[in-house]
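Entry 12.
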Amino acid sequence: MSEREFYIDPSRCIGCKSCMQACEECDTHRGHSMINFDFIDRPETIATAAYVCFHCEDPTCAQVCPADAIKKGLDGIVQSALEPRCIGCSNCVVACPFGIPKMKVAEEQMMKCDMCYDRTSVGKKPMCATVCPSQALTFAAPADIARDRRETPTNVFYFGEQKVVTKVFMMVPEGVEAVSVDVVDYMWEERAWL
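Predicted 3D structure (tokens):
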């Protein structure tokens, strides 16, 4: 399946949460959904977005793990913390710029999207991409994406001045080469009341 890539298009998400239900069925997640689902701008719109792990080239979650429990495979997939090594410190949860890892307290283990490794390693699509009716989550060949979408994919993100390159692509408007996320852009500004 190396000719296929994972694409996220928040503009296509319809909020059905079928991806979350399908994720729970993945053998490696033991009944837990690893999809991060949220409302984009709750006061202003009903728009939603579903996100999977972006599988960073240089994963911050692995860098901050004091137990060396988080590993990135040769295929670029960043796995959930290794159960016997994870000490449940939550460093990875706090450090991830995308806010993806989840600490499962009952299991005492950090778990996150592993792109349904049990499926993709044998040539199948990740569970979420098989059920998404709007193709907000898609596992496809780059040529198919280029042919069928008007948006363009990017896997370059900026968090302030930190550049993060990922295995997973985000669909963005044509001409946009990177997604810039700076907390300053989202800080509340004091408004003058008349």
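Annotation: Strands lie at 5-8, 36-39, 48-51, 102-104, 109-111, 137-140, 152-159, 162-172, 179-181. The mean pLDDT is 88.
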